[in-house]
Design brief:
heterodimer, A: alpha/beta, B: alpha/beta, 10 helices, 7 strands, about 40% helix
Chain lengths: ~325, ~290
């Protein structure tokens, strides 16, 4: 059993689906209701980032910045100096893609609690193609001192994550998807920044997921079960700081790790896990994600399948991994 | 500031600050000379006349704000802050040393009284605009003003013009920017590296109220700030024509004193001694030192 309440219908074909940017929008509105210091800035992408929900509720605390992502985050830095809690929204390709230095200098080094919302991350952005399919944002953000990095698993969790980020007093990055994704959590599921959650117990392999890839790992675990393999699924919505205790406990139990992210594995979530286990608890690792290539135009479903980012397409690689690599359990 | 200094006293203060800068840079052995020196009058007038601040309460809730966007010029800000009483003058000699609160480029969290972290060019104006927007539209405090200083080479940065558009759109009338128009940048004169003219025309077209002054004339600086405060429907920019390295004759007009590379652009001991003597005696005009 686990402490994380799973949506009982998560595996059904008609599971409820919603883009997690909608959850973000709701969460930001709730954060705005709870604290009048919360303000929102957007670089000409109000509706598609769903920051429009906040704008409608608090038009006087919403600022249209135009297509100017450098100004977006540096004005926000100034507003933080003046006591506000600014959320800045754009597509992840542009923010933090374009304005990474300003985030580094005026938010991280300057230690201002500005929240960067990177919408439309991952290949599931779809037909817009590679230029808009941001895959490098996890690496870019986690390497910055003082930056908190969160990739919510579904829309319900995105709402909770947004509220938590509004209250944490730190520079923070939240990564959102464009497409609707299955909801696997419930209103009762816990969310705390810096905590990972065991969704499903198992003994043969630890499947660590972040963001919307956790759902795919849940589906993968069902396929593995059919093949006689007992997989433990751990949801890691906070990539930085990592919940080392929960993650290491799982790895020490199963002796084998698989990670999944809709991002470049280089420097991303899988790399963070590789760093952790190499130093603290070595175990064989199989990283699923984008392997040093960009995305391309296609439908979200097509692209996830093509790049091996669905439970079904992950299966052959994971079976091979389990088949060829023994569990490493030296008994710490 | 609560005490009203006369123009003569402000000039004297600017000269003190120039001396502080020379001493700081010599002790540090690295840093930037030309810009800090030529900003002495502007920064002095801001800290000792224009701005409503309390050095003993750096986070005073009614204060005016100062954002140095061209962070490499921070020696002049550190000197002004020390002279104003934010910290002891002896600390100035720790500039750029390990463990110092006076980092090579200003870091807000290291030194109370700094409003931002800068160094990479082009961000300070946006931060200043963010505060000005907050004061004008959200907190509705029309009596508080936000001042920023930028370099002119810094205006090559796109971020500056994004901020200019933003301030123009929202008519940030509580924002006043002083541009250090010293005509130099690292690779040479600004008009050779990346020409800025027609600079006044550019800001006007972005919706700003523009003034151009002699950046070494304290009364002109005071008048420009007063005018900026009186302009209630536009942000204000004051293009301050300055002589790079002003106050030290062997540095004036020469972009090689901009600074940056280790050992270059800062005075060695002999040069510092000469510079200080010139500053203290107002270039030989004072035959004995002490008093106004």
């Amino acid at each position: 059993m686990s402490d994380f309440e799973l949506n009982p219908h998560y595996a059904s074909e008609d599971v409820k689906q919603e883009p997690n940017r909608v959850g973000f929008g709701r969460g930001l509105k709730a954060a705005g209701e709870a604290n009048e210091a919360v303000v929102a800035l957007c670089a000409d992408l109000t509706d598609s980032t769903q920051i429009s929900i906040f704008k409608e509720a608090f038009p006087d605390r919403y600022i249209e910045m135009g297509v100017a992502e450098q100004n977006l985050v540096t004005v926000a830095s100034g507003m933080a100096r003046a006591g506000k809690i600014p959320f800045t929204a754009s597509y992840a390709a542009f923010s933090p893609g374009r304005n990474w230095e300003q985030i580094r200098t005026t938010i991280c080094l300057n230690q201002q609690p500005v929240k960067i919302v990177g919408a439309h991350a991952g290949v599931s952005v779809g037909p817009d193609g590679a230029t808009h399919q941001m895959l490098e944002d996890i690496a870019l953000m986690r390497v910055l001192p003082h930056m908190v990095v969160v990739a919510p698993g579904d829309s319900i969790e995105a709402e909770k994550a947004t509220r938590a980020i509004a209250e944490n007093g730190k520079p923070s990055y939240i990564r959102l998807a464009r497409e609707k994704t299955p909801i696997f959590s419930t209103d009762n599921s816990p969310f705390e920044i810096g905590k990972a959650y065991v969704l499903r117990q198992g003994d043969d392999v630890s499947l660590l997921g972040t963001g919307t890839m956790t759902y795919q790992l849940l589906m993968l675990s069902r396929f593995l079960e059919t093949a006689g393999i007992s997989a433990e699924v751990v949801h890691v919505p906070t990539i930085k700081p990592l919940d080392e205790a929960t993650i290491l406990k799982s790895i020490q139990k199963t002796g084998r790790v698989v990670t999944a992210e809709e991002a470049q594995i280089a420097g991303g979530f899988g790399s963070a896990i590789a760093e952790l286990i190499s130093e603290k608890s070595p175990a064989p690792l199989h990283r699923i994600g984008m392997r040093d290539r960009f995305g391309e135009s296609g439908t979200p479903g097509e692209l996830l399948t093509y790049f091996g980012l669905t439970g079904e397409t992950m299966l052959p690689g994971v079976l091979k991994f389990i088949d060829t690599v023994p569990q490493y359990k030296p008994g710490y | 500031m609560s005490d009203d200094l006369t123009v003569t006293q402000l000039k004297h203060k600017a000269s003190e600050i120039r001396q502080d800068i020379i001493k700081m840079l010599e002790a540090a052995g690295s840093g930037h000379s030309a810009g800090p020196l030529d900003l002495a009058e502007i920064v002095t007038t801001l800290y000792f006349d224009i701005m409503n601040i309390r050095p003993s309460q750096p986070n005073w809730g009614e204060r005016d704000f100062f954002f140095l966007s061209n962070g490499h010029c921070v020696p002049v800000q550190y000197a002004a802050m020390a002279e104003a009483g934010f910290f002891d003058k002896a600390e100035l000699l720790t500039l750029r040393k390990r463990g110092s609160r006076l980092q090579g480029h200003p870091e807000r969290t290291k030194l109370p009284g700094l409003e931002n972290t800068s160094g990479p060019l082009g961000s300070g104006l946006s931060q200043a605009a963010g505060v000005a927007y907050t004061l004008q539209y959200i907190d509705k405090q029309p009596h508080r003003f936000v001042y920023a200083v930028t370099g002119d080479g810094e205006l090559d940065e796109g971020n500056i013009w994004e901020a200019a558009m933003f301030a123009g759109k929202y008519k940030l009338s509580q924002l006043c920017v002083f541009i250090d128009r010293n005509n130099i940048q690292i690779d040479g004169n600004t008009e050779d590296v990346m020409p800025l003219e027609n600079l006044a025309g550019k800001w006007e077209s972005f919706g700003w109220h523009v003034q151009e002054i002699d950046g070494h004339n304290i009364e002109s600086i005071q008048d420009a700030a007063s005018m900026a405060k009186a302009i209630t429907n536009q942000p204000s920019v004051v293009i301050c024509h300055t002589i790079p390295g002003k106050g030290v004759d062997f540095m004036e007009y020469d972009y090689h004193w901009h600074g940056g590379a280790p050992g270059s652009g800062v005075p060695n001991h002999e040069q510092a001694k000469t510079a200080l003597k010139k500053l203290r005696t107002l270039d030989g005009k004072i035959t004995h030192e002490g008093g106004l």
